[in-house]
């Protein structure tokens, strides 16, 4: 009797589980049908950004949390039940209200993006830009660097065999929306155009007329400010130190130029690093380095074009006070440096 009771209970339980699974499947099918749309879109359409490395299930979770997807749980069941395989493509997508889950997944997998949003931070070098483009899928690093080397130079960029890249400093750091079909040359053209726009903005803001012949000087100085300044409102003071040292025919002795010469980042520049033979090493050469050492943003360009008027010749960063400490003499600078533990 006990065995029969257990058998009946097992059969009932099995039927119950089967009914639940059947209802779940029916619900999932209805949920993903053309009549039941998975997207909660209040407008006619919504833009969705997929970052490099994000998975389909990760997108389900994120959009569910953002209130765009009705259910990440049933979306995953649908994907699993239908054997959805393969990754999704990064970029920015546009979806309409009547998009079904099937269409939604297919669009993400085929990479039918409207544009790819990409941000190049201030201070990025051309190598940094190439790496980020490679990661975004817009262009390979090799392809972009080759385009940089062969791109016809604008009138304000003079060829210089000592420079690593003639266009270094002029590819303006900003946030861009690029078509997935954009070419490396078109990316360069867009970034150069943005640089030209910013220079015109600076002319209006400062009331200064800046000739194209001065662009390289200002961009080179701005690039050093960009790499050296840790506090925004001290950029114009750092600019004054650079100009004061140039006017006195002193070596600039800027660590950031040494790092660019080395071609790698280091937390601490060692004494042996200062000996590197390079047209960028301002410890060994007088005047400006061979060219810009990064692509500076607008605040650094403004500081280079409109520096503060000071008598400072030295500065050192104080992590305790979170600011640069400026001085007029080497003796004063040496004492400050010693007090700060340098």
From TrEMBL:
GO biological process, one term: cell wall organization
TM segment ranges: 9-29
Domain of life, per lineage: Bacteria
Keywords for the protein's UniProt record, in alphabetical order: Cell membrane, Cell wall biogenesis/degradation, Lyase, Membrane, Transmembrane, Transmembrane helix
Reactions mediated catalytically: a peptidoglycan chain = a peptidoglycan chain with N-acetyl-1,6-anhydromuramyl-[peptide] at the reducing end + a peptidoglycan chain with N-acetylglucosamine at the non-reducing end
Enzyme Commission code: 4.2.2.29
Enzyme class: lyase
Site (Important for catalytic activity): 228
Cellular component GO terms, alphabetical: plasma membrane
Subcellular location: Cell membrane
Name recorded for this polypeptide: Endolytic murein transglycosylase
Native source organism of the sequence: Clostridium tarantellae
